[in-house]
Amino acid sequence: MILNGEAESLALGGRLAAVARPGDVIALSGPLGAGKTSIARGLLAALGLAGEAPSPSFAIVQPYDPPEVRFPVLHVDLYRIEDPSEADELGLDEARTDSLLIVEWPERLDDRWWHDALWLTLRMQPDGTRGLTARVPEAWRGRWPLT
Question: Would you give the DSSP letter of residue 20?
Fold first, then answer.
């Protein structure tokens, strides 16, 4: 899939919101500036968030709860995680029971954390567009590709 600018990244997030549910994990991978946060912002807006979602780079975990959004969401940015053991303190395992997890920089932790995640990888193309590839687990079959 090719994304032509921020508007298409936001729109992709909106389409993800239509099929995402509590217990899901959406992993967003790619270099700085690839559009991970734009996809997350589009998803959060489609779930009802009125303002622009801040990047959770410094907070690491930014929670959203009803009535702010339709169901609980944790927007997670693991960029600053230096040791995988630090993730244990974030409570991500517990949150997976009733929240949607949107995880930027998921590669900072090993695959056991994300075995059932919809894994979206963004690559910057020479023409300025973003190429997107998806690793689709069984839990997402029937929901991906998005229409």
Answer: -
Which burial class, exposed, middle or buried, applies to 19 when counting CB atoms under 10 A from its CB (0-12, 13-18, 19+)? middle
By DSSP bridging, strand 130-135 and strand 2-3 are: antiparallel
The residues pairing with 119 across neighbouring beta strands, listed in sequence order, are 27, 135
The whole-model pTM stands at 0.94
Number of domains in the chain: 1
Residue with tokens 């807006």: 45
Take residue 39 and report the two structure tokens written for it. 């996809």
Q: Is residue 147 one of the residues assigned to a domain?
A: no
Helices assigned H by DSSP within the chain:
6-19, 36-46, 92-95
Give first-to-last CA distance, the chain, whole Å.
12
Question: Alpha helix (H) ranges present in 36-142?
Answer: 36-46, 92-95
Q: What's the Cα-to-Cα distance from 12 to each of 21, 79, 98, rounded to whole Å? A: 16, 22, 23
- The residue range of the domain holding 17 is 2-140
CATH number, domain at 61?
3.40.50.300
pLDDT tens string 22-64: 999 999 999 999 999 999 999 999 999 998 888 888 889 999 9
